[in-house]
Write a structure and sequence with these properties.
Strand content: 15-25%
Low-confidence stretches: none
Structural class: alpha/beta
Helix content: 40-55%
Mean pLDDT: 94
Radius of gyration: 23 Å
Largest sheet: 6 strands, mixed
């Protein structure tokens, strides 16, 4: 792409005043970065920083993507649209709706911001052809995105993404996009709002995931909850209240939707800083449990008492506890299916497979991304085995305990965590104590994630060079010989091709992959050791070895 020519074209054609001001303020470097390429469209749809340019999230890029999706679906199809609290999310949702309506598609739009799993749910319940969620999940406020779901309620496959991208590439974003007037399309029925009954049905499905089966629990536990200025407030507080958890205090500063995320610049419950305000509330109120969901409410993070302090649990730790709790409850109450299945991603803790095996549950490993867990559920459903799905989770705080959606669900996670916490609390045990019991039974396992950012036009090329370097060989990790190299580039273990490399020694596994949503290279380490101190020593050695290779390449 000739970025200078494209910049001049935008300057001539763009009418939006905010975008025009940004165009006029750009220096040469900013122009190159904004127009060096089209924003990437893949299985996660679009995600990027807000602003003017083909490499940014704006109404023109959203409209072009919507036109490409409309062309791929064909006239007469129907699309569910949802959006979160991010800057421009409501604008982008209406932009997409107007394009779909102009192309003869039936548009079913949520009238208010809601969690991303409600789109997956609504697509299936309303028998829509596709779904679109305007969200950038847990990214900083300067980001937004456009996530696409298929008719099965699962994020689109690689094949579908490639076909949609081919349609998008045929289009000039100024000449080839059709758009209706939103209000006129609404009045004429081309666009209609989704009723409250769909949200209620979704929440009823969430509540049906309970595995307490009449067990006595103290539901008056003191809970602090933060929606992190996102979509979780209404559904999470409602489902908790309707399930008997009424002693809930919401973090006031993070209660209402606000795309600027003023008290949590990186609104991700994986990040300690995002949880800091909630922890202050816990200490002040002497609360028992802290819950936080990310802006689109598909992830859930927690903190619990551990002695005199509050301890943040990782996604792997919470997932292990939930897996064990669900399996133990279903075993105790005789509701475990004959051929139970647990699904996790390949970067999720190896210890989960041991816990599942302890209950006679089969583990299915999939590529990174909850869409692959959703695809396994869909396959099981097609085989008449939907009831065999016990649960699924990924290390990045995503959990699902039912088959009513095909994506991770922070509302479901919040309820199940509260039930698990209350169950153990009633029996005089904390979650950290139960976790230590699992380590004593199955062995200690340390999991860490390291991210390395590669911003700018050269970032993708740099990451490709680094992946090529690792593929050329790494004989030793943490002083141990690398016994197995698993390269998923051409497809492996029945999984589709992916730019992922897994290196394994007797006690260490390291997974290296470029992020699918951010300009980052991610390193996942899993270390097995007799205790935490030994695991931390090995983990530090391995991470330093890999970082030295990164430094060489840079």
């Amino acid at each position: 792409m000739d970025y200078r020519e494209e910049y001049r074209r935008w300057l001539e054609r763009v009418g939006d005043e905010e975008l025009r001001r940004e165009l006029l303020d750009m220096d040469e470097a900013a122009r190159r970065d904004a127009f060096c390429r089209d924003l990437s469209f893949g299985t996660g749809g679009l995600r990027g920083t807000l602003g003017a340019g083909t490499n940014r999230m704006n109404i023109h890029v959203v409209a072009r993507a919507s036109q490409g999706l409309a062309n791929w679906l064909g006239s007469g199809a129907s699309v569910v649209i949802g959006y979160d609290s991010r800057l421009k999310s409501d604008v982008f949702a209406r932009t997409a709706a107007a394009v779909f309506a102009a192309n003869g598609l039936r548009v079913l739009l949520f009238p208010e911001l809601l969690p991303v799993p409600t789109v997956s749910f609504a697509v299936r319940r309303l028998k829509a052809s596709a779904g679109v969620m305007i969200t950038a999940s847990h990214n900083p406020c300067r980001y937004n995105g456009y996530k696409v779901y298929g008719s099965d309620g699962c994020q689109i496959t690689s094949k579908a993404a490639a076909e949609i991208l081919a349609e998008i590439r045929k289009l000039d974003l100024f000449e080839d996009v059709c758009s209706a007037d939103f209000e006129s399309a609404l009045a004429e029925g081309g666009i209609s709002f989704i009723g409250e009954d769909v949200l209620t049905a979704f929440l009823e499905e969430v509540k049906s995931q309970s595995v307490l089966f009449g067990d006595a629990v103290d539901r008056d536990v003191a809970i602090v909850y933060s929606p992190l200025n996102g979509t979780g407030l209404k559904p999470v507080t409602r489902v908790l209240a309707e399930s008997g958890f009424t002693n809930v205090t919401v973090v006031a500063e993070q209660e209402q939707p606000d795309g600027h995320f003023p008290t949590c610049p990186y609104p991700n419950p994986e990040v300690r800083e995002a949880m800091a305000l909630g922890l202050e509330y816990c200490r002040r109120l002497d609360a028992d449990l802290l819950l936080a969901t990310d802006p689109d409410c598909d992830r859930c993070g927690i903190a619990v008492r551990d002695g005199e302090e509050y301890r943040l649990l990782s996604g792997n730790e919470t997932g292990l506890l939930l897996l064990d709790f669900i399996c133990s409850q279903r075993t105790k109450h005789g509701t475990m299916p004959a051929r139970p299945v647990f699904v996790k991603t390949i970067v999720t803790t190896d210890l989960a497979e041991k816990v599942a095996a302890g209950y006679g549950v089969e583990t299915v490993n999939v590529l990174t991304g909850f869409k692959y867990i959703g695809e396994v559920i869909g396959k099981m459903e097609s085989e008449g085995r939907a009831g065999d799905f016990v649960c699924g989770f990924e290390e990045s705080y995503g959990y699902l305990t039912g088959t009513y959606v095909r994506d991770k669900d922070g509302v479901d996670a919040a309820l199940m965590i509260c039930e698990m916490f209350a169950y153990y609390r009633t029996r005089g045990m904390s979650l950290p104590e139960r976790l230590r019991e699992l380590y004593a039974q199955y062995g200690y396992c340390l999991n860490t994630l390291h991210s390395y950012a590669f911003e700018g036009p050269e970032g993708m090329d740099t990451m490709a060079e680094i992946m090529a370097r690792f593929r050329r060989g790494l004989p030793v990790l943490g002083g141990e010989a690398v016994e197995t190299v698993r390269d998923y580039a051409a497809g492996l273990d029945g999984l589709p091709p992916a730019d992922v490399l897994k290196l394994e020694t007797a006690d260490v596994s390291a997974v290296i992959r470029p992020s699918g949503t951010e300009p980052k290279l991610k390193l996942y380490l899993c270390v097995t050791a007799p205790d935490r101190a030994a695991a931390e020593g090995t983990e530090l050695q391995v991470s330093q070895e890999i970082e030295s290779i990164l430094d060489e390449e840079l």
